[in-house]
Amino acid sequence: MSESGQPELFAPDALAAWEASGFGQVYAAHAQVIYYLALRMLGDPTQAEDATHDVFLKAWRKYDEFRGEAAVRTWLYRIAINHCRNLLQSWNSRTMLSNADEAVWERSASPADSPLRVLETKELGQRIQQTLDRLPPEYRELLLLVADEQLSYQEVAELTGQTADAIRGKLHRARRAFAAAFAQTA
Amino acid sequence: MEPDPPPSRLRQEQRTEQAAQQHTQQTQAALEFEHAEEVLRHDRAQHPPPETLATRLKASVAATPPPPRPWWRRWLGR
Lengths: 186, 78
Known about the structure:
The complex is a heterodimer.
Chain A: H1 12-20, H2 23-42, H3 45-62, H4 72-91, H5 99-107, E1 116-119, H6 124-134, H7 137-146, H8 153-160, H9 164-184
Helix pairs in contact in A: 2-3, 2-4, 3-4, 6-9, 7-9, 8-9
Chain B: H1 7-27, E1 30-33, H2 36-46, H3 52-62, H4 71-76
């Protein structure tokens, strides 16, 4: 209890540790990209908020063991991707495209080399979600990671368990698939 | 043939038309993106994490026991 008789929201030790460890700065620097990854992987703002909370809480519990072999952001991404994949697997309620469907995207007539033109509307976010939902999970994760300017191709490759060359090749196909699916949502 | 509207009414109609055009331009600004990643970056900027999330996370941290020291730190006496 505080001096005013009101219960304190945070334990002082935990708050001090939060500040002293620099974890508050870690959260401030990376929360947006982790939240956005969760939002577009899970497709639901409430679930994304819960997932982001859980990802940073896991990171906090392991923060003492983090020794900086990888960038903090890459480390957080790894936790977030695994967390969201596990959630999606356990829900088993979203329609996933099979590898056979992947081939269809690669054959589809694609406006990939022409710019994507859209009108700024409230529905843009919905169209993007619909587009991502139609992509194979591998392409969806790849595009979400490459969209982060702070990640190198090498880091994306490590996060997805591939080589940087494979990433470059798949990125081209993922862009084509996105453009084709996006056009269908108009 | 219909007579020309009086100047004041004409100006009023022009102003209304200009305002409507500006409104349309503001609400339906055409965006152009080179690649999917640019679309996603734009979308990301529109979707920041909820402000309540940091508070909620701090509360969870406060309720979480501090992580144990790793074995190598205990071994090194750090």
